[in-house]
Amino acid sequence: MIGIIGIGSMGGAIARGLIAAGTAPGEVVVSSADVDATAGFVEETGAKLAYSNVDLLERAGEGAIVVLAVKPYAVGGVLDEIREAAARRGSVIVSVAAGTPIEFLESHLEPGQPVVRTMPNMAAAVGASVTAYACNAPAAPRADDVASVLASIGIAEPMAEQDFSAFSAIAGCSPAFTFGYIDAMARAAVRNGLPKAVATRIAAQAVYGAAKLLLEKLDDGATPASLADAVQSPGGTTVAGVVELERAGFGAAVVRGVQASVDRDGELLG
Question: Partners of 48 in the beta sheet?
Answer without folding.
Answer: 29
